[in-house]
Amino acid sequence: MIIKKDSLFATQISHVSAQQARDIDLACIKKAWVPTDQLMTIAAWHLARLSNEYIKRPSRIAVLAGKGHNGADALLAAMYLSNWGHQVSIFLMADIQEYKGLSFRQLSQVKVAPGCRVLSRQDFDLDSVDLVIDGLLGVGLKLAARPPIVPIINQLNHANVPVISVDIPSGLDASDGPIHSPIVKATMTVTFALPKIGFLKDASKSYLGDVFLVDIGVPPHVLRQFNCDQRPPFHQNSVFKIEY
Description:
244 residues, alpha/beta, Rossmann fold, nine-stranded mixed sheet, 18% strand, globular
């Protein structure tokens, strides 16, 4: 499905490295008093809204949730999507006891949400699935994906099912692009606050799909600390399509 949003060229927007993305998150907490769960709530809502716009009808959605912040974003988006009438199957990529902090909180919510069912990675199956949300790996990736994630990514890439990636396609390096393998070939990437430098690599285009940049409430004065002078005009819209 085509989602119509105002567009910006990639050259009009500052891009951040993996380290800058982590530092911006930390600065939000320590210097701007913006808690991570607030940013996550906004990010997950945008992710769910764009997923809902893409699919356009009550559907069967598979959410792949790692134990990090991308997985927590995906879990919270799953709750919103179930509230809007979708049947959501959540596949946990780690043992349940490994989900801590915000991931544990979001997991606790979806476990009691009508329309959500929580399954293990061993149950992963794409039969009768209309859409997949990729919350496997995030900007913290430093090495290539390892088992048990590798066969999941390979299965996704060989299936005829649209995939929406959370912030970055799993396996793509936020700073250097496609230097590892395998990498999720996303239909759409919903990236938060600012796009990542790795997106600018020519070889990244085949993994990103359509890129949508969303405002999650990072204060402009925080971004200025990191020399991010080309900021999106979020005062006009909270979502932009980025043209690479």
